[in-house]
Amino acid sequence: MSRRVSMPAADDLFRPTAESSGPAVRAVPDPPEELPTEAAKVPSGRVRHDEKITVYVTSAELMELEKARLTLRGEHGMAVDRGRLVREALHLVLGELEAEGEGSALVRRLRES
Fold it and tell me: Model pTM?
């Protein structure tokens, strides 16, 4: 009796995860004709995201983020992960920047730093 382990072939490892009739190439959408409307600018929430960024924060900033997450869970009954919390905050800040421009808190804070 052989003690060799049977390994899957490369085709099995690198197969598409969803059934499709065509090649596994994602089409790039055409750019929009005009700027997106406010209704289209909603945070992505709990979906699979295609893009990733890395943001470095201080220990104090990470603690504040965790406190906010725990406050949302404990006092408001909302189980939110750090990524979603950051995406929501980003949505709010960028929305204010678009609406207020020069008078936005983001512009003021960046000018001060």
Answer: 0.57
